Amino acid sequence: MSSIESLGWQHTLFKKRLNRFELLKLRADWPCAAIRLRVHRNHGVEQVLSALPPFLGFGGFAAGVWTGDYDDSLSFPAAPADASLVWVDFSRYPALETADLVAWFLGRLDALRATDDAALIVANDPDGTQRAKAVNAALDAWANRTPRAALLDLAGIASDLGEGAFDARRQKLTATRLSDAACLEAARALGLRLLPDAFAPPLKALAVDLDNTLYSGVLGEDGVAGVRMTPGHEILQKKLVELQARGLFIAIVSKNEPADVRALFAARRDFPLRPEHVSDWRVSWNGKADGIREAAAALRIGADAFVLIDDNLGELTSVAAELPGARLVYASAAGEETAAALDHFPGLSGRNASRTDALRALDLGANREREALAAAASDPASYLKSLGVEIVLAMNPAEERGRLAEMCVKTNQFNLALARLNEVAVDRYLHDPDRRAVLVSMKDRLADSGAIAALFARREGGVLHIDELCVSCRAMGRHLEDIMIGEAIRGVLAELRAATVRLPHAVGPRNRPARSWLAAFAAVDLGDQPGHVDLAWPQPRLASMLVDPPVSITWKKP
Amino acid sequence: MTTDQSEQILKDVFAGVFGRPIDISAPLTREAFGEWDSLKHMEIMFALEAATGREFHEDQIAEIRSVDDIRAMLES
């Protein structure tokens, strides 16, 4: 995606009230990944689909759409797809009691879910009636328990638009009760959030400029007291605080004197964004691409997981040139517009914080202290004992399905098979009698790291296949890989007996740490091709480690 | 709105709806241009409303059969 060209689209895509004429003029002339979208409907959807391309294009996607006939029975004819949209006007079922409508509709959705792994997006009921609220509450619960399912919140859109959400006068011409304004908002939700969330890893960090981005003014010219916290910039800073609470890292990347920036944050208590919200500071006169690379290394994430927010088009252009694929947000003089961009930006807008997300920043801070302890310790065992590490493993934690899938998608470095299991695939491990999923969490006396590893196993023909093994980069380097992976496999073997454990390994651009671990663990040379390693179990080197481990190991009861 | 402005809007709308530049200088009718179906017609109308800030009556919309009809509607 050409980040610089798409900057010019921001104002049109993120404005409060969308304009179809302005949207029509936006055509992505950069490469876009294709998504096959299958639409099942009983009313007009074309006004939504015709507005979808610029929103999808902004995130680097393009949809090939198959639209079914108007079908109140929701027969769901088969068609290959990467994503399905169920677009139903519930007012077309007046004869059904609410409970019957809910039961029938959810039954149809479950049937559709069972046919394939496609991302499944269901539009809820925009009417503000009691019946609609009951249907939507049932849909919420269904989406929460169903893998790879999400709701297109027409109720929320209708609430925002009020009477402007419906256009009964034109229903004969458009085949839908929804207004063009509602259809444009639906396109925005689909194109900027729901579809990108299903196909792209979420962003992990915001690199934030200071002058004329976080506040109005230039620190070096206006001084600590002279820069202005306008109402719009206050909204922006509160938005950043909210995103940090949802698990995103905030890195300040600014060309300023470090002493001036320290004085600024110490003096300006009116700033909602406080130093404790910031995970990394890159304040220098070096290029911003270097700042982002350094922040990425410190935070142990890829530079492509960042969004740079900056008011300076020269800086944005420079970063786009040095970091291809960089995500960019142009910070306007009106901070509120920048906050609106962050509300809609693909990869940011759909985040709901998990407990592990909330712990991430604190855990990272503790890593620096852990590294100091490791350097001072005489051996790994004494290091671990000094930390008071507690490992907690959970077998088939169905309530953590989302987190298990997220680890498969987001982990790049310690990812052994690169299987990229989505929620539907993870769900099979949680429910198949010959499969298991293990989630590993960790804490020590310095911080709670939350969930940091996931293992997926399948027994077939007397062999336990480890179909995927991921360890969060935050947990790497603590000399705990052997113990936690060994204990996870031991726990699975206690339920799925097998004499051999097979660990497939893929070759990816960044998973050398996982391959290096396996080579050391199995004492083999993996070469440079994908393959697998077969291990007899138990492994002698693990036996003594697990009999008297230097860490506390607990299996969480279901 | 000047004639030039309305012509540019028409060009932009047709190019946007059909995904390519469309020659609207020649007579262009719904009957002759097969891609201009009822759904595209509504897309054109909504885009024109967004471009001009005007709202067209459903009867006006239904009566439009050609680009010339749209010009007449914009001038009215």
Describe this structure in words.
The complex is a heterodimer of chains A (558) and B (76). Chain A is an alpha/beta fold and 558 residues long. Chain A is built from 23 helices and 18 strands. In chain A, the strands form three sheets. In chain A, strands 11, 12, 13, 14, 15, 16, 17 and 18 form an eight-stranded mixed beta sheet that branches. In chain A, strands 2-1-3-4-5 form a five-stranded parallel beta sheet, sandwiched between helices. Chain A has a five-stranded parallel beta sheet with strand order 8-7-6-9-10, with helices on both faces. In chain A, a hairpin with a 2-residue loop joins strand 14 and strand 15 (463-471). In chain A, helix 5 packs parallel to helix 10 (180-199). The longest helix of chain A is centred in the middle third of the chain and has 22 residues, at 355-376. Chain A is globular. The model of chain A has no long low-confidence stretch (mean pLDDT 92). In chain B, 61% of the residues lie in helices and 0% in strands. With 76 residues, chain B is an all-alpha fold. Chain B has helices spanning 3-18, 38-52, 58-63, 67-75. Classes of the chains: A alpha/beta (558), B mainly alpha (76). The interface between A and B is medium-sized, with 17 and 20 residues.
Compact summary:
The complex is a heterodimer of chains A (558) and B (76). With 558 residues, chain A is of the alpha/beta class.
Provide the helix percentage of chain B.
Answer: 55-70%
For the sheet with most strands of chain A, the description reads: 8 strands, mixed
| Biggest chain pair interface | A-B, 17 and 20 residues
Calculate Rg of chain B over CA atoms. Answer: 11 Å
Number of helices of chain A: 23
What percent of residues of chain A adopt helix (DSSP H or I)? 40-55%
Total number of strands of chain B: 0
Q: In whole angstroms, how far apart are the ends of chain B?
A: 11 Å
Quaternary organisation: heterodimer
* Envelope shape of chain A: globular
Low-confidence stretches of chain B: none
Q: What is the strand content of chain A?
A: 15-25%
Largest sheet of chain B: none
Q: How do the helices and strands follow one another from N- to C-terminus of chain B?
A: HHHH
The number of strands of chain A is 18
* Helix count, DSSP H or I runs of 4 or more residues of chain B: 4
Radius of gyration of chain A over alpha carbons?
25 Å
